[in-house]
Amino acid sequence: MSKRTDDAPDTPGQLTTSAGNPISDNQNSLSAGPRGPLLMQDYQLVEKLAHQNRERIPERPVHAKGWGAHGTLTITGDISKYTKAKVLQPGAKTPLILRFSTVAGELGAADAERDVRGFAIKFYTEEGNWDLVGNNTPVFFVRDPYKFPDFIHTQKRHPKTNLRSPTAMWDFWSLSPESLHQVTILMSDRGLPTGVRHVNGYGSHTYSLVNAAGVRLWVKFHFKTQQGHRHWTNTEAAEVVGRTRESTQEDLFGAIEQGDFPKWKMQVQIMTDAQAEAWSERTGWNPFDLTKVWPHSDFPVIDIGMLELNRNPDNYFAEIEQVAFAPSNIVPGISFSPDKMLQARVFSYADAHRYRLGTHYEALPVNAPRSAVHHYHKDGAMRFFDNNTKNPDAYYEPNSFDGPKEDKRFAEPPLPLHGDADRYNHRDGNDDFTQPGNLFRLFNAEQKQRLFANIAAAMHGVPDEIRRRQVALFAKCDPAYGVGVAEALKLDPAGGERIKGTSATDNPAENATAN
Ligand code: NDP
Asked: Which domain holds residue 510?
């Protein structure tokens, strides 16, 4: 119910139109005679049907199916020497909303599907909203935003069959070796969690922290589940989906409703500029590459706080369907990095919301900051808020009417840049194999067998040429990885020979992308 601005007496039981006019009959339409046609002047009927037609908004092109709740971040550690952000200072308690999601499925998709889980958090800080829009994986399938729409097309329906296409997925992945790390996670046990209470969250990108002295450091954010990791096998998930398509919603909503509040330990990894350079030099890895992690042994995690979800939304549509996260929302003391994917997301998320929800989507209650908002944006869809410059004459800037002004105290330290503006082949000399190999070598024998079986199942119906190309990539991560998948796929001996040959010339993906 909208807020009333006058002193008229309220009659809560009285049904009204959206203009506040009392409704006399909500059961019988207005007709010419008991059996006669309807009258156009039955405006309540028109309004009711027109509203029904508009009850859906476009679903998100990705991350359409979601589950979420409100909660709190409590900072218990002390990283004040790294950042001046108030939300990260010792003792800070910040309200938040967290929306989990699957990536590929549509709004009505079953929950128990093998897919990456979105882990998007909006922190309502006293310095404005900070959105950390991550996943349950520390890396991603692509590292250059040019490839993001292509990648998503392979995850969505084929234009002719209107079916998901394993051929498209594996064709793209096998031609994009940078996807190996994320594909390995997706096909491992953690690719099919029993619910989102049992997943880690990762900011994934490298971000920056700025301290009170104006020094910039690089940072990765992690949220470790306190509920333990739990996953389903493909067979178990098929049984779950047969029983309920809403297993994650039931689990998350049910736990919170019963007062069993899920928690995640918040951790950071920190890298100085000098460390970034030395590490890059030693490993050949780019600290701003979204397909790479920072190994814990090189950059230990620092515990900084606890995130708890403790309140279910009252209205799913208003609070979860309309919540709009954007990595562009940062606060003083936290900022971006040269990560190319992050740079593109800074543009594209806010743009998606302007299209999907409307120009002033940030004014919706779930998106509105809890701190004051003063800007000069003017009209457009959903202009339902007051003149927030506090003065109707101050609708441009500069002005002589005491309108809001910039404040240089919030300037970030300058970011040194070097190099020629050019298109650099991001696959040139990039090691896409060691880190997925490291993950593979962490798995025990049973985990490896499930990984092989999951990959073989996901490749059902995929042409042999594509399977072989992909197996050759797995073999470059670890020979046992290639052999295991080849065996699970029952590839013929000729394929086996090619798997053993792991030189670059055997790999059409590399040949296709070499300079
Ligand atoms: P560590 O042994 O210090 O850490 C291993 C990490 O792997 C832990 O964070 C663990 O999460 C996570 N992990 C375990 N099983 C899986 C799985 N099936 N899918 C995804 N993650 C899993 O190793 P390093 O830091 O040296 O990294 C080794 C490899 O671990 C990396 O190449 C990367 O693939 C993976 N990894 C690394 C992360 C990082 O930030 N360094 C983060 C996540 C994964 P948990 O502690 O919750 O069990």
From this structure: 434-514
> What would the pLDDT profile of 57-115 be if each residue is shown by its tens digit?
999 999 999 999 999 999 999 999 999 999 999 999 999 999 999 999 999 999 999 99
> And the tokens for 134?
């991550």
- Is ligand 1 within 6 A of the CB of residue 165? no
The 3-state DSSP class for residue 334 equals strand
Contacts 24+ apart (CB under 8 A), 286-289: 286/430, 287/206, 287/218, 288/206, 288/218, 288/337, 288/338, 288/339, 288/340, 289/143, 289/339, 289/430
Q: Is residue 262 part of a domain?
A: yes
Span 439-448, pLDDT tens digits: 999 999 999 9
What pLDDT, on a 0 to 100 scale, did the predictor assign at position 513? 31
Residue nearest to atom 44 of ligand 1 (CA): 138
**Catalytic residue numbers?**
63, 135
Question: Do residues 261 and 358 both lie within one domain?
Answer: yes
Same domain for 323 and 236:
yes
Q: Does some domain include residue 158?
A: no
* Atom from ligand 1 closest to the CA of residue 220: 40
Pocket test for ligand 1, best of 434, 438, 439, 447 (most atoms within 8 A of CB): 439
Task: Confirm or reject: Cβ of 135 under 6 Å from ligand 1.
Answer: no
* Percent of the chain whose pLDDT exceeds 70: 94
Ligand 1 atom 48 nearest Cα: 229
**CA pair distance 51, 61, nearest whole angstrom:** 23
**CB 206 near ligand 1, within 6 Å:** no
Whether residue 327 is found in the same domain as residue 441 = no
Is residue 392 a part of any domain in this protein?
no
The structure's pTM equals 0.93
**From the CB of 454, is ligand 1 less than 6 Å away?**
no
